[in-house]
Structures are given as C-alpha cells and as structure tokens.
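Homework help board

Subject: predicted structure for assignment chain

Our instructor gave us this sequence and asked us to write out the predicted structure in token form, then describe one feature. I got the tokens but I'm not sure how to describe them. Can anyone check?
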Amino acid sequence: MKYVIDSKVYENHINDEVHLYGLLHQLTFLAGKAKDEKDLDNLAETAKRYGEIAEEKFAAWRIPGRYLVFGDRKDLAELKAAELTPLTAVLKEHDAKIREKQRAAASNDPAYIISGGAFRMLVGDLFDLLAQYSFLRNRVVEVKTEKRLARLQKNLSGENPSIRRMYRRWGIPDSTGVTGFDMLESAIRRTHLTPYDPDGSEDDSD
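My token output:
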C-alpha cells in the first residue's frame, strides 16, 4: 500500500536527520583533533551530551522499543497511522472536493464557510425577528377600535433600534436600509462568509 506524508512531518524528519548528521560530523572532527587527555575529556563530555540529544529525538519519534529488538514492521502500525495517510484516502478526499467544485459550478451555488459566532448571531437575529413578528401580529389582531389602531400606529411610527442593530451586525451601513433581497444577501456574504475552496489552494502556499 502507498502512503502520503504531511509536508511538515516530512520536513521535521529531514531536520532531525540533518541535526544528527551535524552531531556525528562534529564528534568525528573532535575525535580527529584529540591529542591529549584534556581533548579526550572534552570529547567524552560532548559525546555524552550528543547522546542525550539523540535519546530525546528518538523518544519524540515514538518508535517502539520492540522494533529495535525484533525489527517487526507490525510494531510500526501505530506510528504509521499517526504520520501517514493511505493514498487511497487522499485520492478519495480529492475526488470529493472536485465533485463539490463541479456541483457548485453547475448549480451556480458556491459553498461558503461561516464562523460559529456569526452563525449563532444570524440564528439569534432570525429568532428575534420571529418573536417581533408574533408580537406585532398579536397586537394587530387585538385592534378592535380606531383608538387602539391609532395607538398602535404611533408605537410603530418610530425607528426600531433592534432592527438598526441587526443592520450593523449584518454589515449594512447605518446610512442605508435593506431595500432588496440582493442587498441583504450581498452584505451578509461579504461580512460573514468565506468562500470554500475545495482545492485547498490556500494551504498549498505554506
């Protein structure tokens, strides 16, 4: 089976290999220059420190100790699952992204990403609008006389501050109001939605 490794995991392994090569090269250099007891003591101290570094790196690699003794590849299963992704899974995800992109293009219905906070805000505003509609409906139903009608008209004649706050949350300037569906849709899309990129092209630049 073929696998795919994340670029950061791969680069970390390369960096560790380069680091260990540098330590080994330095030890070789010090060993070649050793001429007296002081040099040998320095070499021994350096080797001890480099050994500690190697042990720290080995622990970070999470290679099972059994593998060092028996060399059984089955012991690497957990490490493989943590660092590698089967190529079939990557291709399946890639195909799904392509299908989503084709669906969005064909239906002129692009996908978007919305933050949890923005989603909860919009749901809250929808609930508030429903509550205001229910309240107003009940008030209208209760109108039986011209006096009550005049009182209701007076109460509704002023600007509703909660609606103005919604405008600001939706991304509509204070100087304007909602005059059409397209205007509201455009404001919310611009303020709260991020186009979904099924190709993940933004990640490719890392």
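Reply (TA_rk): Your tokens look well-formed. For the description, you could write something like this. The mean pLDDT is 85. That's the kind of observation they're looking for.
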